Amino acid sequence: MTIFYRKYFEQFGSIVQYNFTSPTGGYVFITYKDASMVDACMKSRPHHLDSRHLYVKRALPLDDEHPRERFETTRDLMIIIDFDNKNCNEKDFLNQLREYFSSYGTLYACKYCHETYFNYILVEFADKDQVDRIILDKPHYYYEHQLNVMKRIPSNIEIMNTKYSLNKQQSSMVIKDAIDDDNYDYIRSRNNFNKNDSIAKEQISEIDLENEVYRLQNILKKMNEDFAIKRQQVEEQCSEQLKHLDENTDQTNRLKQDLEEEYAKLLVEYESMKHENELLNEQYLAAELENFEITSYYEQILSEEKAKTIQLENEYRQKLKTLNSNHSSPPSSPRLISSTSLKSPSQSIIPKDN
What we know:
single chain; alpha+beta; Alpha-Beta Plaits; 5-stranded antiparallel β-sheet; 58% helix
C-alpha cells in the first residue's frame, strides 16, 4: 500500500524522503525537494486514494514554548501585542494586520479579544493551512516590533494565562513592597481603574460587530459557493456514472450474447471433432489389426521361402559336386588314335560288312 501512496504524491514533485510509521500510527511523513511542491500538494486538497479520504497537513518543527502546535490544526491565529502601538489607532492597526495576513489567503475576521489574564488579536482564516504557513514563516514584524504569533488552541491559551498571571503577581508584589501605605492605596485604586477599563473593553465594539458581520457573511457566502460547487460536481458525477452504467450494460449484454453464440459454435465444433476423433481411432485400430495380420502372413511366407531357398541351395551344391566329379576322369592316350582319324574330312570311312 505504501507504494501506491508514494506514487500518488509523486505527482506533486520529487520526493526526497518517505517515512511510513507503524500500521497503528497511520502516519506518512513526506519530504519534498522544494517547498513549492508542498504548496502544490496542499492546493490539491482534498486527497482521495482507494475510496479513502487522506488527511494532509504541513509538518511543523518542534517548538518548546508551544509544543502542541505541531500536532493540532486550527483556522484561528492569536497575536499577542507586547509593545505600545503609537503608530496608529486600533481600527487602523487591525486594517493593517488584515492587509498583511491577507497575503496568505482569505481571512474572515480580525478583531480584539480578551482572556482571563491577557488581551490578544484574533485572526480567523478560511483554511487551516494558512495558519500553518504563518507559523512556519515566523518571525513577523510590525514597524520593527516582533509580533508574538501563535495558534489559538487551548494549550497556548493556558500557557499565556499562566505566564501573564505570574507577571501580574510579581508586578503587584514589587509595587506593594516598594511604596508606603498611602501610595499603595493610590496604586491599588489605579489598578482597579485599569481592571475596570479592561472589563469595559470586553464589551463588543462597533469594529468587532463589523468584523463579526463581515466574517459571518464571508462564511455564509463561502458555504453557499462550496455547496453549489459540490452539488454541481455530485450531479455531474452521478450523470456521468449513470451514462457509463447504461453504456456498460449495453456492452455487457452484447458481449454476453456474442460469448453465448461463440460458446454454442465451439460446442458444436467440439462434438464434431470428438465424433471425428472416435472414427479415426476406430480406423486406426482396424489398420493396426490388419497390419498385424499382414505382418504375420508375410513372416510365414518369408519363413517358407527361406526353407525352400536352403533346400535349393543344398540340391545345387549336390549337383555341382556330382558334375565336378564327372569332369575329373583322365583323357584317352594319343597312341590309341587311329590313323584314319588323320584323314581329311573329304574322305569317308565305310565300315566293312562281316
